[in-house]
Amino acid sequence: MKTKFKFSYEWTLILVPILLATGSLATLYSITSISGKSSLVLDQAIYFGASVIIYLLISAMDYKILKSLSWYGYILGIILLVLVEALGQSVFGSTRWINLGFFQFQPSELMKVLYIIFAASYFSSGEKLTWRQYSTFFVLSILPLLLILKEPDLGTTLVIFATLVVLLLFLKLPKKFYIVSLIGALLLAPIGWYNLRPYQKSRITSFINPEADPRGAGYNVSQSKITVGSGGLFGKGFSGATQSQLQFLPVAHVDFIFSGWAEATGFLGSSLLVFVFCLLIYKIFTIARQSKDRFGYLFASMAGGLLTFQVLVNIGMNIGLMPVTGIPLPLFSYGGTSVIVMTAMIAIVQSIYLRRKALRFD
């Protein structure tokens, strides 16, 4: 008699992305209903449709296959980041996208999940590594960070750096390693500040005092806070969100989509969205603890850390608590590459959950 395996899905990893996709489409419709950019809603719907197929394929796959492909994925990510410099399309002064004709592909977004796979695989053996091996890993980590920062894309650079920090915390390394890492980070901080573009520096300074330049660097933050506050307790509804519909809020479909949602649904709707993200992140960290192997544990932990960082920074910059860094709200902001990559990452976590303890029956 053949042995079969029966799997039970973690429905939070299915229902929450569906809720986020629905909220995203509703907010995009609200934002674009007057501006005439209704194609954004259709495009986003197509991205979500493609993501469903990708989710089903990846969740059905054994995630441990990715461990053996991690180096290939890392090399592919580096090659794509180099190609951006040669073939990339410049938008708003940043060269981050490769025009495929039917799709604007952003390699830095793909590098997020490729880096997590690579890092989780590198430390998956659980063996005590030498300082040389640690140094090699950090050199390999710095390379994509420098390539992404050169585009320039400070937001994605910070996201990948945050996943690196999460990895170090979950590895539970000797204290002296963290001390050396902290000293190294403090020494490199001035170099990082020196290499920032003028507009990136102005975003940080405007975060400290947005009223100093309300029509310039501080304009986005000021308008975002006005938009969020105008929603009140219950919101204006998706047809009456005038602040975002009348284009007072710049880049409302990407960086400041949370403000558009807050204006339409109010404090209650905003609280619900935050709760939904918290539930998703909690489930991912829970699955990390349930993983059968170290690779799955590290991958899910870093995935949870990545989502936490992106949600905190995006919502934080929408309400004036974080500098504007161009970090999208996962599965909510407009963007094909971002939506597909985040879906793929959650699908891998689903695969980890499905294989944590397959139920065998005859």
What would your notes on this structure say?
There is one protein chain. This protein has 362 residues and is mainly alpha-helical. The chain has one domain. The protein is built from 14 helices and five strands. The strands form two sheets. A three-stranded antiparallel β-sheet has the order 2-3-4, covered by helices on one side. A two-stranded antiparallel ribbon has the order 1-5.
Helix-strand makeup class = mainly alpha
Helix content: 55-70%
Indicate the radius of gyration in whole angstroms. Answer: 21 Å
The proportion of residues in beta strands is under 5%
Number of strands: 5
Sketch the topology as an H/E string, one letter per element. EHHHHEEEHHHHHHHHHHE
Question: What is the topology, as strand order, of the major beta sheet?
Answer: 2-3-4
How far from one another are the termini? Answer: 7 Å
**How does the overall form come out from the CA principal axes?**
globular
Largest sheet: 3 strands, antiparallel
The overall average pLDDT, rounded, is 85
Which consecutive residue ranges, at least 5 long each, have pLDDT under 50?
none
Write the layout of secondary structure elements.
Layout: E1 4-6, H1 12-32, H2 39-60, H3 65-68, H4 70-87, E2 89-91, E3 94-99, E4 104-105, H5 107-122, H6 131-150, H7 154-171, H8 175-194, H9 198-208, H10 219-230, H11 242-245, H12 257-290, H13 294-318, H14 336-354, E5 359-361
Helix pairs in contact: 1-2, 1-12, 2-14, 4-5, 4-6, 5-6, 5-7, 5-13, 5-14, 6-7, 7-13, 10-12, 12-13, 12-14, 13-14
